Fold:
Amino acid sequence: MAKEMRKPIILDVNHMMADILGFQYGIASEQVDAMARVAAHAQAAVEKNRGTGWLGWMDLPYNQAEIVAKIEKIAARVRKDFDTFVVLGIGGSALGPIAVQYALNHQRYNDLSAKMRGGPRFYVEDNIDPERMASLLDVIDIKRTCFNIITKSGATAETMSQYLIISDLLKKKVGDGWQKHIIATTDQEKGNLIKLAHKEGFDLFYIPSTVGGRFSELCPVGLLPAAVCGIDIKGLLEGAAAMDERCKTPNLWKNPALLEAVLQYIAMEEMDANIQVIMPYADSLKYMADWFCQLWAESLGKNVTRKGMAVNVGQTPTKALGVTDQHSQLQLYTEGPYDKVITLLKVESFREKALIPHGCEEFADVAFLGGKSLNALIDAERQGTEYALYRSGRMNQTIILPQVNAYTLGQLMYFFQMATAYMGELLDIDAFNQPGVEESKIASYAVLGNQSDKYMKKAQEMKERTESQKRYLL
Ligand code: PA5
Structure:
């Protein structure tokens, strides 16, 4: 493995700009300058509320020394006592742990020998598909497994039903001391999990009240699973702090997350680019794209401003993987509607090198690959995609990571969180709630026959909807 690099990530927006991409396709620097005051106001508003309301995540790079020490202690115990570590959680309580593990650990971590892994096998169960639960139980030895139940609200049906299944099994198979197999990560006051944790004496980590689900990766939600799998959690926090430093200026040409928010805002509002494709050119970052998609979608897709005016805003995030999706999506990106911004993630230095041997000399189109490396090939293909997008006048930008490591990943996640917070300000919406998700939760509880008033009323409302017709069933 190459030595870890501690360098800043770079946002390259050349191909977003009209003077590079072409006047009819790109954003004029004057359009950006025209937003300088509004942007500075957005930056000041976020900065002013640092650590309060739902902006507690801005303090996480700085205020967790004691928590990190406790995490490292418990993680060491888990590594010693268990073969397998399973996160039970969903949404913001799952996507970060998945993304960080996949980015920073061996890509076939669970397939390695225990010695090579150095830590337990790792699973994140973020769905309630019964087949998936059965298959997990088929491959783990519950007596040698530790479960981390993560839920900020302490009430999410998916996670709590998983808890019921697992705690029942633990009681039956482990008996006395089953509680040692559970670590709870939840809000300090709200919800049922905290009450259960106190009653049963589970090891316990708090999600600060000022940190919402999708902004919680850098608190114990993400740090404990990462530490259990041997990831440098201090490096993640140091990376986040380094990005935070760069976001302390209201000057949008100096603050990368602010520039990002402004460019996406102009792309959406003035150029009808209502889709953002995030396309890492590194397998290790493919789940980072999932994490980003939730952050951007759930935070910014809203139907009302903070003052209660009706709007329907939000840029649809979607993911693609370079180079795989060159052979699937790229045709659409280069020739389809002009409704997208493509965000490429480039890795300058991969942690491994794979040389392509010489051979097939009789076929010139194959032989030319000999002596090159997969590193050079993936980068050449990234450049090819970037050029094809440029040639067809498609707005695209590149986030450059010198290397994928804890420090650059901390920067990247914090960058996206800041861009999301700024974008919320620019759109004048609450980026930290999710009322649209609540509607579906209430409706599904109503379907399951929950007898409390709220759900019974919803069940009635659902009965009264326009009836389905047979002719539409084929
Ligand atoms: O970002 C959010 O708030 C959501 O995606 C939540 O993380 C998700 O709904 C799970 O909630 P909880 O952690 O309360 O179980």
